[in-house]
Amino acid sequence: MFEIIGYITVSMMVSVLLMIQYFIIIPHASYDRTNTVERLIGLIPLVPFVMMIVMLMYFIVELLIVKFVKWFEINFGWFFINGRKRAAWAEHLRKKYQKENDV
After folding, report:
1. Mean pLDDT, 10 residues at a time, the chain of 103 residues
2. 13, 58, 59, 65 from 6: Cα distances, Å
3. Which residue among 1, 31, 37, 46 is the one 20 to 30 A from 60 at the CA level?
4. Phi-psi category of 91—alpha, beta or left, where left has phi over 0 and alpha has psi -120 to 50?
């Protein structure tokens, strides 16, 4: 989990540096704003930012979904299991989440 947080932190720092480079260093007066083609070409440097944001959102949502599924299975999963199979469900949870607790 800390590896994912580290990757997210590093990628956020890189994206901030790239945004600083795009919005401050690259002058906006270098192209004619009335020409549609030049306006679209001027948006091409934003593609890495969009890709970075999409990747970050994917990792964050994936992390939240995994945490929610684990929380739901541990706290409320028993409610959806037939009464005779609850012991098997408890054993399944022990096997599934025992690896995470053994550090």
Report:
1. 63 73 60 66 74 83 88 84 83 84 57
2. 11, 15, 12, 19
3. 46
4. alpha
